[in-house]
Design a protein that fits this description.
Length: 271
């Protein structure tokens, strides 16, 4: 079986099922096309205990990415990475046992149109989609196209999101709600932002959909702290800094295993 056989709605079902056993969810990120054998990282992520994997489709003018992800995108684009090439690489993969979630900016979605874009994701075995620069009140066309293609669009919520809009984001999101821990760009940080706890608590008032906390999760201690508030974590810059520094799949497997162990340690899961 290949990832192209992924069932519609599989991302949320998969994450809910794992969450409901008390497991902390781990969603690591890799920039597609970053190295010649970049898909080897995906297998390493799955082997380390990832519950889903985020694959970035690099864009030349990102707005929410910090310096590390920007550098990774620039490097991938310089190697000739494109949406079509990345999806072709994914389509040829054997089943990893965990869902794939693509992330990119709306310009790339518009290039082919939401319908064609989401259909291409689906054919490549991608079950979810994150578009961070698309606000919820403008997401209708993409959400409809994604639903028609069997792709689950996960929406972002930030500490500045008013409660009525937070409820709308939680209602319309699929797969999970992506809780942005702070106002700013992606990147490694010394401590988990204090705003993370309040945001995840506000999201939980309006949904029981899985809530994953991202932006600044870099260490086992931060993953453990995040687990006290959210169902799990998204880890991007900390992964990509290691890739940019030359880390191979085995190195990333070892790093993510430390996060997996931290998430699995005692800590009362969020209520």
């Amino acid at each position: 079986m290949t990832n192209s056989t992924v069932a519609a709605g599989a991302v949320e079902r998969h994450l809910r099922a794992r969450r409901d056993t008390g497991r902390g969810l781990l969603l690591p990120y890799v920039t597609g096309g970053i190295t010649p054998g970049w898909t080897d990282y995906l297998r390493a992520f799955a082997d380390a205990g990832a519950d889903a994997i985020e694959v970035g489709l690099p864009f030349s003018d990102p707005t929410l990415d910090g310096v590390t992800i920007q550098e990774a995108s620039d490097r991938a684009l310089a190697r000739g990475a494109s949406v079509r090439r990345i999806l072709a690489d994914l389509a040829g993969l054997p089943d990893l046992g965990v869902p794939l979630v693509a992330s990119t900016y709306y310009n790339l979605v518009l290039h082919d149109g939401p319908g064609a874009f989401c259909a291409a994701l689906r054919r490549a075995g991608v079950g979810g989609l994150i578009v961070p620069d698309l606000p919820v009140h403008e997401a209708g066309e993409l959400s409809d196209a994604a639903t028609a293609a069997g792709v689950e669009p996960a929406l972002l919520a930030s500490p500045a999101t008013p409660q009525p809009r937070l409820a709308e984001i939680s209602r319309r999101s699929r797969g999970f709600v992506y809780a942005v821990s702070l106002m700013g760009t992606t990147g490694e940080r010394a401590v988990l932002a204090a705003s993370a706890a309040e945001l995840t608590e506000r999201i939980r008032r309006v949904t029981d959909r899985p809530v994953l906390l991202g932006f600044g999760i870099s260490t086992p201690d931060q993953a453990r702290e995040a687990r006290r508030h959210a169902d799990g974590v998204v880890v991007g810059a900390a992964v990509m800094r290691r890739v940019l520094d030359g880390a191979g799949p085995d190195d990333l497997r070892a790093f993510l295993t430390t996060l997996r162990e931290a998430l699995d340690q005692e800590c009362d899961p969020p209520r």
